[in-house]
């Protein structure tokens, strides 16, 4: 199956147009077809043209008859001229830039590949947008719950304050301050109980340096115990050498 096809230069129509707004290689805009018809001896409606931007706002145009392009075999993926005219070759262009199988004549495999690429990009954007929407919804729900709790607490405090006689307001405020002081003093104890409940894992999480020191100490004690076990333990008393009577061995005084 042929994937690239080239035609002689004389099978194409060539021209240069004033198109300062065109910055893309490919089929020329429909509005430029009347200008192309003034430069080529053919009806612009029967042509398929592609362009390459040039310097100075000019556009190099290569056109071919649409009927001839429809007769191109289905396996061809690109159709380019064998060479360029001198007025385009002097601009530093190459024949591969003028691929006539673009736009309405784009091969089906390339069109399918481009569709899959665009679909994948659109799906990725949609997934990111969905994840963002879920995160914003959960955050909104959290703050709504927080606002509802705060409003309920303020209403409860206002109702309790309204039910207290004026001469007991000072005593009620003193009890509230005492409760707040008690809670502030109980916070360190609650943290200690929480750390004790979590065990060594919680201590290692909050104080990693101290946990590392304790681990090294336990490892050193364990290694020392293993060394004593291999050496037979610490002897309780000295045994005499072979051939020496233990009862006559002189006692060493410290």
Low-confidence stretches: none
What is the average of the pLDDT values? 77
Total number of helical segments? 7
Question: Based on DSSP secondary structure assignment, what is the total number of beta strands?
Answer: 6
Q: Output the radius of gyration.
A: 45 Å
Share in β-strands:
5-15%
Largest sheet composition: 4 strands, antiparallel
* Helix share, percent: 40-55%
Give the topology string: H per helix, E per strand.
EEEHEEHEHHHHH
Ends apart, CA distance between termini? 104 Å
Strand order of the largest sheet: 2-5-4-3
Shape: rod-shaped
Task: Name the structural class.
Answer: alpha+beta
What key attributes describe this structure?
four-stranded antiparallel sheet; alpha+beta; rod-shaped; 254 residues; 7 helices
Summarize the structure.
The chain is of the alpha+beta class. Helices cover 52% and strands 12% of the residues.
Question: Which helices and strands, and how do they pair?
Answer:
Layout: E1 4-7, E2 13-18, E3 26-27, H1 33-39, E4 47-53, E5 58-65, H2 66-70, E6 78-81, H3 86-89, H4 108-163, H5 169-198, H6 200-206, H7 208-230
Parallel strand pairs: 1-6
Antiparallel strand pairs: 2-5, 3-4, 4-5
Structure description:
This protein is α+β, with helices and mostly antiparallel strands and 254 residues long. Helix content is 52%, strand content 12%. The strands form 2 sheets. Strands 2-5-4-3 form a 4-stranded antiparallel beta sheet. Strand 4 and strand 5 form a beta hairpin. Helix 5 packs across helix 6 and helix 6 crosses helix 7. The chain is rod-shaped and about 105 Å long. The mean pLDDT is 77.
């Amino acid at each position: 199956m042929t994937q690239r096809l080239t035609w002689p230069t004389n099978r194409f129509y060539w021209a240069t147009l004033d198109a300062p707004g065109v910055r893309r290689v490919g089929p020329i805009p429909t509005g430029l077809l009347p200008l192309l018809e003034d430069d080529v001896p053919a009806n612009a409606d029967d042509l398929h043209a592609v362009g390459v931007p040039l310097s100075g706002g000019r556009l190099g145009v290569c056109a071919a008859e649409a009927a001839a392009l429809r007769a191109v075999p289905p396996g061809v993926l690109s159709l380019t001229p064998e060479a360029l005219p001198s007025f385009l070759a002097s601009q530093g262009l190459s024949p591969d830039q003028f691929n006539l199988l673009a736009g309405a004549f784009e091969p089906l495999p390339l069109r399918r590949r481009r569709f899959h690429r665009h679909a994948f990009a659109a799906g990725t954007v949609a997934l990111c947008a969905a994840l963002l929407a879920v995160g914003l919804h959960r955050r909104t729900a959290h703050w709504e719950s927080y606002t509802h709790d705060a409003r309920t607490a303020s209403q409860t405090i206002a109702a309790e304050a309204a039910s207290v006689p004026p001469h007991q307001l000072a005593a009620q405020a003193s009890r509230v301050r005492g409760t707040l002081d008690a809670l502030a003093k109980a916070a360190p104890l609650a943290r200690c109980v929480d750390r004790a409940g979590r065990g060594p894992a919680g201590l290692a999480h909050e104080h990693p340096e101290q946990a590392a020191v304790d681990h090294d100490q336990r490892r050193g004690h364990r290694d020392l115990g293993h060394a004593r076990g291999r050496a037979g333990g610490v002897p309780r008393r000295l045994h005499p050498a072979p051939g020496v009577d233990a009862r006559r061995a002189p006692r060493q005084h410290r």
